[in-house]
Amino acid sequence: MLKAQSGVCAEPNLHGLTLFCNVMTDDVDSMRRKLARIPAIITELDDRFSESMLNGFVAIGADYWDVIYPETKPVYLHRFPELQQADREAPRQPFDLLLQIRSDRFDANYLAGRTLLEWLGYDIEVVDQLRTFRYLDGRDLTGFIDAPDNPKGLRKRAVALLDKEQDQEFAGGSYLLLQKFRHDLRHWDHLGGDRQQQIMGRDKVTGERLPEAEIEGVTHASKTRLISDDEQPIPLLRQNMPWGDLREQGLLALYLSQQPKAVNDWLKQRYYEDEQGNYDPLLDYTQAVTNASFFVPSPDFLNQHSYPAQPEHNQGSDTTE
């Protein structure tokens, strides 16, 4: 079975810590060695706090990839797509690295974060950090079950991870698109339950889709269905968690996939009006304030590239006069 970093296909946890980082050193060889050690550090911490189900990963930013691994690159790794129409937009903020840690103990996440930052040292700076948490029984702060159609079990690996037939070198890795949403909960709560259900297209308690006869207009459920325009399934695993305090709140959305182009199209379906002038109505009550694109390499890839490749010798030039 393909070996991925532990946080890619992990089951939901109670607490999360996400660190948005930029690299401050030009020593590429040193950074490669440090990145290669991160999955092992997370495994060691998981062994230490085994009851907390600790997991995580390091992801490489689309812009930084060409710096750290210039000799090879995932075929579809590009910047986060341009998404802007009317007052709906998703501005890009490129980051070099993303460190994601999740477990059922906040203190374990805190210690893991400190351990990773001590390992990386002054070679990086933390641009932003975000604490996330599980809300009620896996709900977004809107009160609705988050991503009720998310794949389960081994299906997670099938949609999130590249296999050897797709890309031999990057097998076990995953493309990651990230959006940090800030919700307007005051406006949302003022709508009331019935109107909220009409916007979401789902029952607020069960998460089940509302019958078509009860739906008025376009819904969030219809605009986020995991079926493409040509009726093909969109391979997408969402590892989302709410974030916030009593002043501002939202959702950290992590979209993991083996086919990022399909996810890009899925995002555009939400932001851009269709022929009938419809878009995802939930976007009237939330805004993606941070958006970025990454690749999550497998531990094998990180280890294989932890040292610079040796130059090849030209056998034909080895002559004597």
TrEMBL record:
The keyword Oxidoreductase applies. Belongs to the DyP-type peroxidase family. GO terms for molecular function: heme binding; metal ion binding; peroxidase activity. This is Peroxidase. One of its GO terms (cellular component) is cytosol. Its cofactor is heme b. It comes from the Bacteria. Keywords: Iron, Metal-binding, Oxidoreductase, Peroxidase. InterPro entries: Dimeric_a/b-barrel, Dyp_perox_C, Dyp_perox_N, Dyp_peroxidase. Residues 138-299 form the Dyp-type peroxidase C-terminal domain. NCBIfam families: Dyp_perox_fam. Residues 302-321 are annotated as: Disordered. It comes from Idiomarina seosinensis. Residues 45-133 form the Dyp-type peroxidase N-terminal domain.
